[in-house]
Design goal:
heterodimer; A: 130 residues; alpha/beta; Rossmann fold; 4-stranded parallel beta sheet; 4 strands; globular; B: 207 residues; mainly alpha; Serine Threonine Protein Phosphatase 5, Tetratricopeptide repeat; 8 helices; binds adenosine-5'-triphosphate; binds magnesium ion
């Protein structure tokens, strides 16, 4: 099953989006929250992101969703430090993190491929709320 | 410059960043999220501690230690940006135990490319690149023209003053400050300012 990593500046945001997504996904879906800094401060933690990606992978790859700014740069830096094997099956989704997480959690839990799960997240980009 | 002096320069950077942290944070509070000084201070304090145990005579190893520490501890955009800069610098310095002025240009060029690679920004977007790119060009010109060390320093300091002033005249289109749009006008970029302090520390340490 494709794993999902949620990268936010805030530990609470990442955790909250994870909780929201788990309501819709099957219990064995791997959704990892990589939010905030070790001391609970606001920021993005390279090490936490790197480890979350490694844990989220069960062989089928990982889709990473990010909030803004350094979340993208810290994630891209983390990708550079994955071994080649894993690196080849980790993708960043260009999607809003809340809607994207929910769409791709569902796609992952019904057994979607890496491309399908990423696409599910990115489709949420064009969905208007009203 | 030997690895030992590189380490001394990096320790001096930590002191400068520590001293200027509040100023950097204030600049960031005006157009960002008010953490640039806090981020830089956390990162360089960790670098300082890490370097106490650094024994390698290879300047590349020293810079690599700095890179990994900054990437892992800074926590904001300046972490992956400066971290990648030091990582590329480390690759350029790999295997060198005594850096000359040509090496310095190679290292600086690699570092600036690292920032561009990681942040995908160009000149004129109100980021640290608005200081780093002109500094790199000024240094390359100074070497070409065969300027003395003193003349080179003067040239770079005056380019840095212009660059800092220039960041006040442009609108941010990258980073947190880009959310402010036109309201970022008139404010000095915090990242360009921390770059100023880092370059100044290098210039002050070469004689
Ligand atoms: N894409 C970029 N390319 C180059 N420099 C950038 C970029 N984005 C931001 N910066 C620089 O980083 C500085 C801000 O660094 P700081 O440590 O405060 O990170 P931040 O913006 O708070 O990070 P975050 O994205 O986590 O909010 C800016 O002043 C700017 O010079
Ligand atoms: Mg900031």
């Amino acid at each position: 099953m494709v794993g999902i990593v949620l990268v936010s500046h805030s530990e609470k945001i990442a955790q909250g989006i994870r909780d929201l997504s788990m309501q819709m996904a099957s219990p064995e879906t791997k959704i990892l929250a990589a939010g905030g800094l070790p001391g609970g401060e606001i920021g993005t933690d390279f090490q936490r992101i790197l480890e979350s990606i490694q844990k989220a992978d069960s062989g089928d790859g990982v889709v990473v969703l990010v909030d803004l700014g350094s979340a993208i740069m810290s994630t891209e830096a983390a990708l550079d430090f994955l071994d080649e094997d894993l690196r080849a099956r980790v993708v960043l989704a260009d999607a809003p993190i809340v809607e994207g997480a929910i769409s791709c959690s569902v796609a992952a839990s019904i057994g979607g491929s890496l491309e399908e799960v990423k696409a599910a997240a990115e489709e949420s980009r064009g969905v208007s709320k009203f | 410059m030997k690895a030992e002096q590189v380490i001394q320069t990096l320790q001096a950077m930590n002191q400068v960043i520590d001293r200027e942290a509040q100023y950097l944070t204030d600049l960031d509070a005006a157009i960002g999220d008010g953490d640039h000084g806090i981020n830089m201070k956390r990162g360089f304090a960790a670098v300082s501690t890490k370097l106490e145990g650094e024994t390698s005579e290879d300047c590349g190893d020293v810079l690599k230690t700095v890179a990994m520490t900054l990437i892992s501890t800074v926590g904001g955009a300046s972490g992956p940006l400066y971290g990648t800069a030091f990582l590329k610098a480390a690759q350029a310095a790999k295997g060198k135990t005594d850096l000359n002025k040509e090496d310095a240009l190679e290292i600086l060029t690699a570092a600036v490319e690292g920032v561009q690679f990681r942040g995908k920004a160009a000149r004129g977007e109100k980021t640290m690149l608005d200081l780093l790119i002109p500094v790199k060009e000024a240094y390359a010109d100074a070497l070409d023209e065969g300027l003395s060390l003193e003349e080179t320093k003067q040239r770079i300091f005056s380019v840095m003053d212009e660059s800092i002033a220039y960041t006040k005249t442009i609108i941010a289109t990258k980073g947190r400050a880009s959310y402010l749009g036109e309201r970022s006008l008139g404010h000095q970029d915090p990242g360009a300012t921390s770059s100023y302090f880092l370059i100044k520390t290098v210039l002050d340490s070469v004689e």
